[in-house]
Amino acid sequence: MNYAELSESLRDAMEKQDTVAIESLVVEFQPADLAEFLHEEEVDVSLKILAHLDIEERAEVFGYLPLNTQFDVSEEMTAEGLAQLLNCMESDERADLFNLMDEDRQTAVLKLMAQEEREDLRRMASYEDGTVGAIMTSNYASVPVTDTVLQALDKVRKTAPDAETIYQIYVLDKLHRLVGTVSLRELIVSRPTALVSDLMVSELITMSPDQEQEDASRLISRYDLLALPVIDNQQRLVGIVTYDDAMDVAEAEATEDILKGGSISGLEGSIKDASKFMLYRKRIFWLLLLVFANIFTAAGIAIYEDTISKYAVLVFFMPLLIGSAGNAGSQASTLMVRALGTGDVELSDWARLFGREILIALALGLTMAFAVAFIGHYRGGQDIAMIVALSMVAVVMMGSLLGLSLPFVLKRVGFDPATASAPLVATIADAAGILVYFGIATAILGL
Amino acid sequence: MNYAELSESLRDAMEKQDTVAIESLVVEFQPADLAEFLHEEEVDVSLKILAHLDIEERAEVFGYLPLNTQFDVSEEMTAEGLAQLLNCMESDERADLFNLMDEDRQTAVLKLMAQEEREDLRRMASYEDGTVGAIMTSNYASVPVTDTVLQALDKVRKTAPDAETIYQIYVLDKLHRLVGTVSLRELIVSRPTALVSDLMVSELITMSPDQEQEDASRLISRYDLLALPVIDNQQRLVGIVTYDDAMDVAEAEATEDILKGGSISGLEGSIKDASKFMLYRKRIFWLLLLVFANIFTAAGIAIYEDTISKYAVLVFFMPLLIGSAGNAGSQASTLMVRALGTGDVELSDWARLFGREILIALALGLTMAFAVAFIGHYRGGQDIAMIVALSMVAVVMMGSLLGLSLPFVLKRVGFDPATASAPLVATIADAAGILVYFGIATAILGL
């Protein structure tokens, strides 16, 4: 049965309170699919269904729920039930949930957890949002550097039920410092008497827990890693970031950049489920800011009000010209925001790219000028044609160079380059474009 | 040594032709880093350095090069050298390279390859760009369904040097049909005499080779898979897609959507290295199209030329109003493009989201109207204030609803919803905004 059929049947069984059917259906779901089903149901339905799973499966399905839904469901659990669930959850996921609870609830739940898990949860919950620490897990497989392959395999077998991955195994010295990694692939093809220290790779790619998640995701993707070890400033292993969490981070970062590119402030979680007020808040800031930025364009127009009332035809070409400035600028900034975002381009590349953009923008501007010169000639004669063509070359170049440079400037002063959204660049290019256009017009018409 | 130091030293050793130093340096690089180094050097330097690696390492480093660079370097190799390299490359990567070669070269190289590899290459090269077939690899680990754990582990050990992953093992029946998967984790913790058929998972997530890469990447991310099996229409296993290729696909898709959002047609590979002509070509199409779309806005202005020459103050508010229509529209379309792209929102959600947007856009419009009414009053009195405020509510609502709907319409008729770029939505909203604004003005001023 596919997801649609399964959810149909499960909904049916829930209505009929057919416990046997429910029990046999829930185990047929992929954990991620059952989580999606629960996310669409009421909290009390979720609780009932979760109760049909054994604790390991329950923790896995629960971990796939969006964080807010996890919290809503957890609020209806007893402290005992919740503590039991937390014991079995992945260490990064339970820390996120823990951080949402109020203090009383945190204390109550901590008290009921096993000591080792409690300490782990306390430590993991202390890492700030957005840091590597907040997405790493402490459930890794490790062996002492003195082990033989046989000993190591034995240890890995014992770790298997709890570790998030046993395919990368971390080799530690007596002081818990990371000295190497060995893959399970390497272990199973090696002689049982071989030493782990002879097989391990010791050129390691590592991060520290306070670095940015985005960078961890980039390293995992660049080096095709299964997991990235995280060490403290004394080289001690504190956790690992697995590739599946890195994929989630990369997707969330791409979403953030895309929304910023449309001048929407960061929005977490599903766009479909976001509340009206949340969406209002995330959008009004930039809309208002851009209205006030548009006043500069308006002021530019006000300066040339005399010219406009004498040559009303000039207003006709305004949207074409300032639109083109904005569009060329949006293109250039979009390219740079993405290239800076993926690490394709560095701050130091600006000068070379600026040089390249001058030529590209000139070619774009000339093509566009050619296209609009005819319309200019038709609507207003030779003078207007020349004004429109010259202005077009000027505004396309200005918009492009501005769009290219703004993300670099923002990054340089410590802002997210993605703040250089298409609407922001377009608005700035508009204001400058008006001045260029009417400036050229005034000069040529001799006003 | 970090990457910068390593490349510095290697460049140094190359200049001095210090073979011993070169040999010891190249093995210190991570394969992905050495590829980056080679990418920045001339082809002949790359060839020299690659010659210092054994064939397995050479194939791995070579596989990390951008495809165009791979091709340039391969063109300088002998047919023998290239055939040897292709023998060791990953099956999806070599198929991409193979497809770039001219026919004579393809024939020459194929002749020199081992028969098994040749057949694999022929088959893999036949899948179309963008399909699952083009990123899948045929180097997977498989065992017969009749095996015991002991037998399976033995087979996996033998496959280990060639398989891209041995952590997911595919269980096949006599007709090569996929009947289940078992993880290496499961195998190493189970009794040696247990049957694979008792351990395997048989509820499988699979794809067919002609489906879209994007969907494979989405499934891998959703279900946290290490690899996704690909089967033909007779259930036979033809390959697997691994998580690292899925990450690359997800990144490329995000880049494509971001660039489309800035009205730049799809650009493959590095933005930094793209040629000037290529960038010109990718940008001019939309710039020209949008100029002609802006003519509608201009035509709107032409209709109201009389109104404008009587009330020049109306021109002052033009950029504020049409800018806001465009900005609100860009926001709404950006949200929907991303939500449709990640699968957060489906076509069938349109009506509900449209309803939500009416309320959000009304709130946004009222806030904006409040902000500009004062400026309207200051610059032109009560009538102008009312015109500006009314127009603002109308254009923000119109822009938002249009921006929200356009991606759905595009998707419905079979286009990529990401074509609803910020500049396109802004341009359409501008044209409609002009009509609304001057229409309201003409009505209120009784012209």
UniProtKB/TrEMBL annotation, chains A, B:
Span of domain CBS: 136-199, 200-256
SUPFAM superfamilies in UniProt: CBS-domain pair (SSF54631), MgtE membrane domain-like (SSF161093), MgtE N-terminal domain-like (SSF158791)
SMART domains documented for this protein: CBS (SM00116), MgtE_N (SM00924)
Pfam families the UniProt entry points to: CBS (PF00571), MgtE (PF01769), MgtE_N (PF03448)
GO molecular function: magnesium ion transmembrane transporter activity; metal ion binding
Membrane topology term: Multi-pass membrane protein
Main location: membrane
GO CC aspect terms: plasma membrane
Keywords annotated in UniProt: CBS domain, Cell membrane, Magnesium, Membrane, Metal-binding, Transmembrane, Transmembrane helix, Transport
Domain of life according to the entry: Bacteria
Transmembrane feature ranges: 284-304, 310-328, 358-378, 384-410, 422-445
InterPro entries: CBS_dom, CBS_dom_sf, Mg_transptr_MgtE_intracell_dom, MgtE_N_sf, MgtE_transporter, SLC41_membr_dom, SLC41_membr_dom_sf
Localization: Cell membrane; Membrane
Subunit (UniProt): Homodimer.
Protein family (similarity comment): Belongs to the SLC41A transporter family.
Function: Acts as a magnesium transporter.
NCBIfam families, alphabetized: mgtE
Protein name per Swiss-Prot or TrEMBL: Magnesium transporter MgtE
Species the sequence originates in: Nitrincola lacisaponensis
